[in-house]
Design brief:
388 residues, rod-shaped, disordered N terminus
C-alpha cells in the first residue's frame, strides 16, 4: 500500500488549491479583490507550513546539539584526565629516578666507604670524612678574609696508621638546607630542595701536606666565597691521592713530639707506663741550651735511673703554593737529615704521684732549633716501696 506523508500532502494541497481557485476566478470573471484575498490566504498557508516544518525538526536539532555538547564535554574531560595521568606519571618517574640515584649512592658508599660530610660556621665539633683509606676528623678552627675569598683553618685528625702525603677536598658551599619538615606535598618539597641545591657553589682544593698517623694537622683551605654568610654550610668529600704505611715502633718504644712554644703536656710511653712531660723553660748555654722539664710520675714506683733521647731541630717545612710532591719530599728529607740527635741522663729520681722538675742539656745552637723535639724516655731502673 502506498503511503503519503503529511508534508507531501500539505504541499499538494497548497499547490492545487490556488490553481483551482485561479481557474474558477478566470471562469467566473471574479473581481480583483477576490484574487487578493486568495493570495493573502496562500501566504498565510505558507507561513503555517514553515512553522509546522520548524516545529517538526526542533526536537531533532536539540538532540543533535545536546549530543555535540556531550561529545565536547567528554573530550574535554578525557583531556583533563590524560593531563592528570601524564603529570602523575612524571612525578612517579621522578621519584623512581631519585630512588635509583639513592641506591647508586648507597652502593657507592658500600663499595668505597666514601660519603659526604658537612661543616660550617653554624656547626660545632668535628665532621667525619669517610674515604677509601679510612675516616678522618675535620674541624673548623678559624676563618679570615683574603683577596680570593676566605681562608679556613682546618684541623684534620688522622686516627689511622696511614701517613697521607697528598689529598684533595671538594664539594660545595652556601646557605644551610631548607627546613621542609612542615611540607607534606612531594612536589613542593622537591622544588624547595632543588632550588637550594642549585644555589650552592662548588669548590675544590688539592693539598700536598703530610697527615701524620694518630695526630692532628692544621691546613689552610681557601674558598672563593663573596660573603662570610656563604660559609654557614660546607658539604665536601675527601679523597686520598697518595699515602704510605709507617713502620711504627711498639708502644713501649714510641717517641713523642714537643716544642718550646707548645702549651700543655704530652705523653712519654714506656714499658712501665706513660709519663706526662712538658717544657717549663729553657736557657742558653755555651754548648747549647738547658731545658727545664716537668715530668709527672703517675705510677706507684720510683724511677731511679732514666734517660731522655731523640732528635731536635727547627719546625718541619710546609708545602708551598704550586709545589709538587717530589720537591716537597726532597725538602722534607733534607730537614729530617739535618735534625740533631741528643741523649741526656735524668739527673734525679722521678718520685711517684708527683711532678718532678728536671733539667737537661741539649746541643741546640739557636732557639728555633727547639721548635721540634722528638724524644723517648728510656727507663733503666725502678724501685718499689715496702708497705711495712
Amino acid at each position: 500500500m502506498m503511503t503519503i506523508s503529511l508534508s507531501n500532502l500539505a504541499k499538494c494541497a497548497i499547490l492545487i488549491a490556488p490553481l483551482a481557485l485561479l481557474c474558477s476566478c478566470f471562469r467566473s470573471n471574479a473581481s480583483q479583490d477576490h484574487i487578493d484575498r486568495l493570495s493573502k490566504r496562500l501566504l498565510d498557508m505558507e507561513e503555517e507550513l514553515d512553522a509546522l516544518r520548524a516545529t517538526a525538526a526542533s526536537p531533532d536539532r536539540d538532540r543533535l546539539a545536546s549530543l555535540e555538547q556531550r561529545v565536547i564535554d567528554t573530550e574535554k574531560s578525557q583531556g583533563q584526565i590524560r593531563d592528570a595521568v601524564v603529570q602523575e606519571l612524571r612525578v612517579q618517574n621522578e621519584k623512581l629516578q631519585r630512588t635509583f640515584r639513592g641506591f647508586n649512592q648507597m652502593q657507592d658508599v658500600i663499595q668505597t666507604g666514601q660519603t659526604w660530610a658537612a661543616f660550617g660556621l653554624e656547626y660545632e665539633g668535628h665532621a667525619v670524612a669517610r674515604t677509601k683509606h679510612g675516616s678522618f676528623l675535620i674541624e673548623l678552627v678559624e676563618q679570615e678574609a683574603t683577596q680570593n675569598g676566605y681562608r679556613l683553618t682546618l684541623r684534620i685528625g688522622n686516627p689511622s696508621g696511614l701517613l697521607v702525603h697528598q689529598f684533595r677536598i671538594y664539594g660545595d658551599y652556601g646557605s644551610p638546607p631548607p627546613n621542609n619538615s612542615e611540607i607534606t606535598d612531594y612536589e613542593s618539597y622537591i622544588r624547595n630542595f632543588d632550588q637550594w641545591e642549585g644555589s650552592l657553589k662548588k669548590f675544590e682544593a688539592n693539598f700536598v701536606t703530610s697527615l701524620a698517623p694518630d695526630d692532628w694537622t692544621l691546613i689552610g683551605l681557601v674558598i672563593p666565597a663573596e660573603r662570610l654568610a656563604e660559609l654557614r654550610f660546607i658539604r665536601f668529600k675527601m679523597e686520598i691521592d697518595r699515602a704510605s704505611l709507617v713502620n711504627r715502633a711498639t708502644k713501649e718504644e714510641a717517641y713523642t713530639q714537643m716544642s718550646i712554644s707548645q702549651k700543655g703536656a704530652t705523653m712519654l710511653n714506656t714499658p712501665y707506663g706513660s709519663f706526662p712531660i712538658t717544657i717549663a723553660g729553657h736557657t742558653k748555654t755555651l754548648s747549647g741550651h738547658e731545658l727545664e722539664l716537668m715530668i709527672g710520675n703517675p705510677l706507684g714506683m720510683t724511677v731511679t735511673s732514666a734517660r731522655l733521647k731523640g732528635r731536635l731541630g727547627p719546625k718541619p717545612p710546609k708545602i708551598q703554593e704550586q709545589q709538587d710532591y717530589e720537591s716537597f719530599s726532597m725538602d722534607l728529607a733534607k730537614w729530617d737529615r739535618e735534625l740533631t740527635p741528643f741523649e741526656a741522663r735524668i739527673p734525679m729520681s722521678l718520685i711517684p704521684f708527683h711532678w718532678n722538675r728536671v733539667k737537661i742539656r741539649v746541643p741546640a745552637v739557636a732557639e728555633e732549633d727547639l721548635e721540634h723535639i722528638r724524644a723517648q724516655l728510656e727507663i733503666l731502673n725502678v724501685s718499689l716501696r715496702n708497705k711495712d
